[in-house]
Specification:
The chain is an alpha/beta fold. It has helices at about 25-30, 45, 70-80, 100-110, 120-130, 160-165, 180-190, 220-225, 245, and strands at about 5-10, 35, 55, 60, 65, 85-90, 115, 145, 170-175, 195-200, 210-215, 230-235. It has 2 domains: about 5-120, Tetrapyrrole methylase, N-terminal domain (Cobalt-precorrin-4 Transmethylase, domain 1, 3-Layer(aba) Sandwich), CATH 3.40.1010.10; about 125-245, Methyltransferase, Cobalt-precorrin-4 Transmethylase, Domain 2 (2-Layer Sandwich), CATH 3.30.950. The N and C termini lie far apart (about 55 Å).
Length: about 250
Amino acid sequence: MNRFLGKVYLLGAGPGDPGLMTIKGKGLLECADVVIYDALVSPEILAMINPNAQKINAGKRKGRHSLLQSETTQILIEKAQDNAIVVRLKGGDPFIFGRGGEEMEELVKAGVAVEVVPGITSGIAAPAYAGIPLTHRLYSSSVTFVTGHEAAGKYRPQVNWKAIAHGSETIVIYMGIHNLPYIVEQLTGAGLSVETPIALVRWGTRPEQSELIGKLGTIVQEVEEIGFEAPAIVVIGAVVNMHSILGVRS
């Protein structure tokens, strides 16, 4: 007999704008028994949760961890024993730098029924809200998504920034603000021009969204001068120039 009553849903909350939550995701939140949510999930989306559901904050921000990753996974396993609908609510998309693959692997190993409900990832949505199309027939036919904050102790080599620099016309970096000086040094050292356009989009899709537009060679100084902080998506490439035309929000 299966000792698990319920099912775990790895649900992507999207980047923040509640209008970008999927219909399936909203329905799950409204009937969930337990919701374990991340720090970057917007208050408007948290308000969609069944008022009778148990809510657990598992949010992770740099230097401030509510729960360890292993603790979060263990809670999911335990809650699935006694609850029909357990939602792991993650910012963006669970499988795009969201540790969804790790959590799903452990749940499957434990014998827990699990389903992924994709969300809109911030690497696509934040540039779009800033008027920056990641592809454009005149400027970019390829995009690379990369993390600027790598896991400690991982087995694989570090990000090959030299390959990234020349791998596609548009580079989108998640969690790149903290390591931006190192990233810029690596990209320019690999031959990317200091004149390459770069955009930093903070709190993408939310009312407080802001952008910093500049050049690769001077962006670090500009970030320091104005105190531009995370969370933000970094976009590098000629498509950033479209911001001046498309980035006017009504």
